[in-house]
Specification:
213 residues, 45% helix, alpha+beta, 8 helices, Aminopeptidase
Amino acid sequence: MIAAVPATELLGYLASALVVFGLTMRSLVRLRTISLIGSITFLAYGVLIGSLPIIITNVCIAAINISFLSREFLVKPSDRHDLGASRIRADSPFLLDFVEYHLDDIAAFQPEFQMPTGDDVLALLLTRDVLPAGLVVGHRHGQTLHIDLDYVLREHRDSRLGAWLYGPGRAVFRDAGFTELRALAVTDMHDKYLRRVGFEPPADKTGEFALTL
């Protein structure tokens, strides 16, 4: 006959499962969130079994996760100094390799994307902590930039990078001489994203969302 597992031990197994599950997350925000839940669960387990090392360790882990998540959700986009956007040549080998490597993921959001060429192309490398986090590519038509690609790596999609770029970070477009941005939503997910970051829904036959800078 199989003996019943004590509730305290089950709590320990649950905490362990949460920690392992969290490590499978590619999104940093989700990883930290699940890690926070796991550390709180482990903390409760440590209290129940009276283990001071487990209690101290998980208090520290919870504090670290809370600090990270606070920066993500409580700090205003205008105060985010870890996010950035830098112009890069559209024919840069790094840029072309970046697009090719992530092409399958890009296709899930913008399946018809093809890398534009020509002197009228603007490419912005989006960064977080000075490391590549995404890419915006568009072509110029007068003072309007028609966005062909707006892509963020999975790890950073919960980091409000788009809200920063089209909010406090929009100066990078103004500095390039643009007064308006336009983008065509080709998927429902892309449609929701454009609305969320401040683009106005289509008001003419072009079907493009618009953002005045």
